[in-house]
Specification:
Helix 1 (about 5-20) crosses helix 4 (about 60-70) and helix 2 (about 30-40) crosses helix 4. It is built from 12 helices and 10 strands. With about 280 residues, it is α/β, with parallel strands linked by helices. The chain folds into 2 domains: about 5-70, Orthogonal Bundle (Chemotaxis Receptor Methyltransferase Cher, domain 1); about 80-275, Rossmann fold, CATH 3.40.50. Helices cover about 45% and strands about 20% of the residues. The structure holds S-adenosylmethionine. S-adenosylmethionine binds near residues 72, 73, 79, 216 and 218.
């Protein structure tokens, strides 16, 4: 199926407006590929027909469905394992030291996709910090703008392929059980994570201040304006002394030209702290 330049522009401005995600000129094929399932579901013949349907009703559910189809939800358990090592060996112990008097720890996975990232953090807390955080108030918030992906994450159900990506066998046996066609995560882990729909580009997002924010592999898909907006929000929601962890390819010096964060290196992982 071909896509007229006019329709391509319409779709990519819709995506940018809703999520801050960008599509460059070479991504026409991706739009065609990723909207195919939506067209079938809605019994529409073409993307032009889809646009004709949604144009008179800005804000209708199909706008969201288009944005959801176009963003990248790629994730896995313990993605970039050396990050989780550094979080375990350096980041959490430092936060625990800092918050010893309040006995409270707040962690936010701010673009959590189908849940592997927050559940990896939940496993790490149970496996390595159960004793030192006994009697602490632990809040683990996980969010994404996409309603379907948040519903999926909240269900704690994973396919064979998802479960075999990055999850060590002992943790699989300890925390997952096989039901008919999926792997179901243990209720103890599911109850540790609060899943919410949050669009990071929404104005004046209000949340309690966080000790650790994972903002991994989401800013790379955005251009400068939404990146800066999100980093301003993240800065406001970060507890002094807390850490922001970005994805491997996301370097801060381009993301944060105003220098409102300082970089801290732990091994091969760099994170951000408030200046
Ligand atoms: C590539 S996944 C990264 C998942 C996980 N953080 C990781 O590193 O494995 C990017 C996620 O960001 C979400 N996302 C994109 N734009 C967003 C926005 N404006 N607000 C919240 N989430 C967004 C997408 O829905 C997607 O699930």
């Amino acid at each position: 199926m071909s896509l007229s330049p006019h329709s391509f522009d319409y779709i990519r401005s819709l995506l940018h407006e809703r999520t801050g995600n960008m599509l460059d000129d070479s991504k026409e094929y991706l739009v065609v590929q990723r909207l195919d399932a939506l067209l079938r579901r809605e019994a529409l013949e073409s993307i032009d027909e889809l646009i004709t349907r949604i144009r008179p009703t800005p804000g209708c559910r199909l706008h969201d469905a288009i944005a959801e189809s176009l963003v990248t939800h790629e994730t896995s358990f313990f993605r970039d394992p050396h990050y989780f090592e550094q979080i375990r060996e350096n980041v959490i112990p430092r936060i625990v030291e800092l918050r010893r008097d309040q006995r409270s720890l707040r962690i936010w996975c701010a673009a959590c996709s189908s849940g592997q990232e927050p559940f990896s953090i939940a496993m790490l807390l149970r496996e390595y910090f159960a004793l030192s955080l006994r009697d602490w108030k632990i809040q683990l918030l996980a969010s994404d703008f996409s309603r379907p992906i948040i519903c999926r994450a909240r269900s704690g159900r994973f396919t064979d392929i998802e479960i075999d990506r990055g999850l060590p066998a002992p943790l699989k046996h300890q925390y997952f059980t096989r039901d008919a066609s999926h792997w179901q995560i243990d209720a103890r882990l599911r109850e540790m994570v609060e899943f919410r729909e949050i669009n990071l580009i929404q104005p004046s997002l209000e949340l309690p201040r966080m000790d650790l924010i994972l903002l991994r592999n989401v800013l790379i898909y955005m251009d400068e304006e939404p990146r800066h907006k999100i980093l301003r929000t993240i800065r406001r929601l970060l507890h002094p002394g807390g850490y922001v962890v970005l994805g491997g390819p996301e370097t801060t010096h381009k993301l944060d030209p105003s220098g409102s964060f300082r970089r801290v290196e732990f091994g091969r992982m760099s994170c951000l702290q408030i200046e």
